Structure formats: structure tokens, C-alpha cells
């Protein structure tokens, strides 16, 4: 019988990829695995536990926070606070960075940025949502105060990134710079098992994911790209298929497995698009590149953008390399 590898075993087995590793990154990935299980449990019973709906308050982005946004946020903060791998955290649901300033955490090496619940508009209608995470090694010396510089590193410095998708099944997908792997949660056993080894974008894709409801606000190049994907050309498998769920994690996961492109461009009403660089675009860009795809803001590599603030937004175009380059070409021509 084929041996099913658990996520825990896989993390330990792959620790050897990190010459300086003393196990903290492995422990941190295990903390994320634990928090993911706790969030999954809440989501699965959301309709029964009166944790659907909004809390009647807005987060720093001006979005009405869902109860599950905060529940997921608290689960991750408590998990990191109770374990010693993280010295600082940034979250979509928190106005500012959190620094865990106590004897244990002050010596910790890692900074984590999270989108505790991605696709919040889909929570109450039972459509797939997710959690997105991004991990950096701090720049400041262990034991010294954590600075904003530790948080505002370019995406290319990420040591690991991934997401947990709470869909038909719950899957944790991550990279630590050595390919992308996916692990499916078996609720009967309570463990994640390797189900999607070494994920790569298929050679060709023919799915595009964009909120066409914003069409009038899009730059000319994006409007032209949408027209182009909808034209008939059997050689190029066009027209492409449109798929957009309103959950970045869900659209990204599908496009990475089946081939496709996700676009959230800038627009007249949102000059920098909607998605946040630190806890949405950077982790997805790291995964994209590790799976053989491309991720840009329309011209610049996402991972080379130097962040200026925690909730900074950037346009995101990511997916099959060929498809992204086509969109960039239309944008350049304008
Ligand atoms: O409704 P819109 O404007 O198309 O935005 C949908 C996009 O916004 C997001 O919901 C933003 O993420 P949050 O739900 O974490 O705020 C993405 O998941 C999704 O792709
Ligand atoms: Mg999000
Ligand atoms: Mg969110």
C-alpha cells in the first residue's frame, strides 16, 4: 500500500533544505497547521454556531468585518502567542503590526503576515474561502527590538508562504522555496496528508479570473486583453473560460492546478487595485513562481516591490507565464 506522508513528516523531511535550520521554521509551519485545523473546525459549523454575519465594525481597510474574520485572526494570534517561533505579526484585520515582546518571543527568528480569512464576502453563502500566510526571517538581531524594517521586506525575501483552502476539502498548500506541495486534511484522522506533490502550472491555460463588473474602470490594456480572450481562435483555445469566485485563494488554486490567469488590476476607483501586497500578492507571487508561473503588477515583478506600509495595495496579475506576458503586452501597448 502506498505510504501516505503527513504534513508533519514532510516538513521534517524537508528541513534539510535549510542549512541553518534548527527546526524553528518547521515548528512555525506546524503552528500554522494547528491554527488552520482550528479555523477549519469553526468554518465547518459556522451556520450552526451563530458565527456567520458581520460584527458591525470596519477594519482599517474600511471593510465590514465578518465574525469569522476576527475568529480566524484571534486563533492565529493565540497560536503564535502560545508558541515561540514568531516575534512579530501583521494581519489584514489589525491596524498595525503586533510585536510579541516577551522573553520567549524576543529571541524568535520569524515574522508572519496573514490574511486570516480570504474571500470574506463568500463566508455567509458557503462558497470556498481561505487563509493566506507569508513568512520572513527577521532582519534585526534576535533579542533586539523588532522594527518595521523586519516587516517591510520585499517578497523575494520570503522563506515560506502558502494558503489553506476551506473548500470541498480542506487543503494546505505551501512553498519554502523548493517547489509547491499540497496536503489534504482527513477529518477522520485529524491530519493533513500529501495529496498534491510538486504542483506546476500546466503548460497551457484557458481560464481567466477577473471581476468583469469593474470593466468600465479598467485600464485600456486590460479591456483589450478581455476582448482578446473572448475572441474565437481555435488554435489558441480561445475564447477562454471565465471563472471568478470572489475568493483569491479559490481562483488561484483552480488556476494553478488547471492552468489560468487571475487579474485584479488597478482601476479608476482603486488606483492600486484591491489586493494587499504583504499578505495576499507576495505569498501568491512566491507560490506562482515556484509553480513555474509569473506574477506582476502589470509590469513589475511582485516579489521585487519594496513595501512601504502594512496594508499597501498593488495590482495583481498572476498565473501561467504565457498568459501573464500576454496581458502585460496589452497593458504596455495601452
Ligand atoms: O469583490 P471583488 O472586488 O471582486 O474582490 C474579490 C477579491 O477580494 C478578496 O475578497 C479580498 O480578500 P479578503 O476577503 O481577505 O478581504 C479576494 O479574495 C477576492 O479575489
Ligand atoms: Mg484576502
Ligand atoms: Mg481577509
From TrEMBL:
Cofactor: Mg(2+)
Catalytic activity: beta-D-fructose 1,6-bisphosphate + H2O = beta-D-fructose 6-phosphate + phosphate
Keywords: Carbohydrate metabolism, Cytoplasm, Hydrolase, Magnesium, Metal-binding
Enzyme nomenclature, EC number: 3.1.3.11
GO cellular component, one term: cytosol
Location within or outside the cell: Cytoplasm
Main location: cytoplasm
InterPro entries: FBPase_C_dom (IPR044015), FBPase_class-1 (IPR000146), FBPase_N (IPR033391), FBPtase (IPR028343), Fructose_bisphosphatase_AS (IPR020548)
Molecular-function annotations in GO: fructose 1,6-bisphosphate 1-phosphatase activity; magnesium ion binding
Top-rank taxon, per record: Bacteria
Biological pathway: Carbohydrate biosynthesis; Calvin cycle
Domain annotation Fructose-1-6-bisphosphatase class 1 C-terminal: ranges: 202-331
Ligand binding (Mg(2+) 2): 115, 118, 280
Protein residues bound to substrate: 118-121, 211, 244, 262-264, 274
Record family assignment: Belongs to the FBPase class 1 family.
Subunit structure comment from the entry: Homotetramer.
Record-given protein name: Fructose-1,6-bisphosphatase class 1
Lineage: Bacteria, Pseudomonadati, Bacteroidota, Flavobacteriia, Flavobacteriales
Amino acid at each position: 500500500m502506498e505510504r501516505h506522508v503527513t504534513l508533519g513528516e514532510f516538513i521534517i523531511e524537508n528541513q534539510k533544505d535549510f542549512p541553518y535550520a534548527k527546526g524553528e521554521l518547521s515548528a512555525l509551519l506546524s503552528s500554522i497547521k494547528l491554527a488552520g485545523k482550528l479555523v477549519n473546525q469553526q468554518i465547518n459549523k459556522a451556520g450552526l454556531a451563530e458565527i456567520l454575519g458581520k460584527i458591525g465594525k470596519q477594519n482599517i481597510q474600511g471593510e465590514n468585518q465578518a465574525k469569522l474574520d476576527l475568529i480566524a485572526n484571534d486563533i492565529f494570534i493565540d497560536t503564535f502567542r502560545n508558541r515561540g517561533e514568531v516575534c512579530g505579526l501583521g494581519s489584514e484585520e489589525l491596524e498595525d503590526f503586533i510585536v510579541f515582546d516577551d522573553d520567549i518571543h524576543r529571541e524568535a527568528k520569524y515574522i508572519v503576515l496573514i490574511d486570516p480569512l480570504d474571500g470574506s464576502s463568500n463566508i455567509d453563502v458557503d462558497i470556498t474561502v481561505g487563509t493566506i500566510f507569508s513568512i520572513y526571517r527577521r532582519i534585526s538581531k534576535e533579542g533586539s527590538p523588532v522594527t518595521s524594517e523586519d516587516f517591510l521586506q520585499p517578497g523575494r525575501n520570503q522563506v515560506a508562504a502558502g494558503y489553506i483552502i476551506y473548500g470541498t476539502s480542506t487543503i494546505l498548500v505551501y512553498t519554502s522555496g523548493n517547489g509547491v506541495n499540497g496536503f489534504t486534511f482527513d477529518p477522520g484522522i485529524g491530519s493533513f496528508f500529501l495529496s498534491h506533490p510538486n504542483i506546476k502550472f500546466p503548460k497551457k491555460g484557458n481560464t481567466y479570473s477577473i471581476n468583469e463588473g469593474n470593466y468600465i474602470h479598467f485600464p485600456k490594456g486590460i479591456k483589450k486583453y478581455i476582448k482578446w480572450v473572448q475572441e474565437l481562435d481555435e488554435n489558441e483555445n480561445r475564447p477562454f473560460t471565465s471563472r471568478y469566485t470572489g475568493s483569491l485563494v479559490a481562483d488561484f488554486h483552480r488556476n494553478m492546478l488547471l492552468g489560468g490567469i487571475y487579474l485584479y488590476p488597478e482601476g479608476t476607483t482603486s488606483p492600486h487595485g484591491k489586493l494587499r501586497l504583504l499578505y495576499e500578492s507576495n505569498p501568491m507571487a512566491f507560490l506562482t513562481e515556484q509553480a513555474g508561473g509569473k506574477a506582476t503588477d502589470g509590469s513589475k515583478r511582485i516579489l521585487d516591490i519594496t513595501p512601504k506600509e502594512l496594508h499597501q495595495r498593488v495590482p495583481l496579475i498572476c498565473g501561467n507565464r504565457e498568459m501573464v506576458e500576454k496581458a502585460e503586452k496589452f497593458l504596455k501597448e495601452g
